[in-house]
Specification:
CATH architecture: 3-Layer(aba) Sandwich
Helix content: 25-40%
CATH superfamily: Alpha/Beta hydrolase fold, catalytic domain
Strand content: 5-15%
Number of strands: 8
Order of helices and strands: HEEEHHEHEHEHHHHHHEHEH
Distance between the termini: 79 Å
Number of domains: 1
Largest sheet: 8 strands, mixed
Amino acid sequence: MAIGPSSVIVIVGIILALTYQSILKPPPPKLCGSPGGPPITAPRIKLRDGRHLAYKEYGLPREKAKHKIVFIHGSDSCRHDAVFATLLSPDLVQERGVYMVSFDKPGYGESDPDPIRTPKSLALDIEELADQLSLGSKFYVIGKSMGGQAAWGCLKYTPHRLAGVTLVAPVVNYYWRNLPLNISTEGFNLQQKRDQWAVRVAHYAPWLIYWWNTQNWFPGSSVANRDGGVLSQPDKDIILKLGSSRKPHLAEVRQQGIHESINRDMIVGFGNWEFDPLELENPFLNREGSVHLWQGDEDMLVPVTLQRYIADKLPWLHYHEVAGGGHFFPLAKGVVDEIVKTALNH
């Protein structure tokens, strides 16, 4: 008896389902505090949906600080990587009365994963963190690299809570609807081929990204694979100087698994956003705050051409281009102080 078309479809469906379950589907995250999971060592708040967000405080005590800043880390990082707190000069902390809190984004470090994470949910997470820590009606936000998705989310969804926003080498989504094709293509083509493909997968086939970044047949995302070979020379020089300074907590970054941390950053960062940052309006019409974007012109991870276009389309945004700077230019001596002072001097 011949097998009909419907039977073939069923068989193919079963094969695809089994393949997804055995190869493509990411393993469940290892939740902190669960049996066999990593221990809980950081202070955490409980969010509106029951998730927990781990955080770390720096600078002056909250109740004594004049300026309160929420720092959002980039990809493959965690709350310990708050370079805008650790590299901020003690004199500036005292002089300007600075308090800073860094938190593990969902799925990183000791924060629970959020499989339906969006720029909006990140903005609401930050607002809840600020409220539960009693940071006051307004606070500053600094978002670095992939932390930019949350900073843009704050500008869109919680502008009334912001005293100021600073984006530092924020990753640009090539699929923002108001980013012209020629501009996005130019920036896209400046990426390594491996990263071009990883971005495509994250956008068009996010269900495949776990396999893509963990298989050994060809290179996945350079960030997911921790391949520093794609970095610019200025970045390589900075990393060489840092040496092993990050190693004590490196294992903590991905301890719950790569999918709800690195991969989720990519899925959100290059997914279909419900708003376009290029349509945002100035949240500080009375000059009670300001928005700044800092970018190195030798950044091989985030093309400078994209930031120049954004700065041109958002005239209320203060654009600072760092000559000879790579993606990690804030790690150079004195740069963090300059960025923070600029943010506070609106």
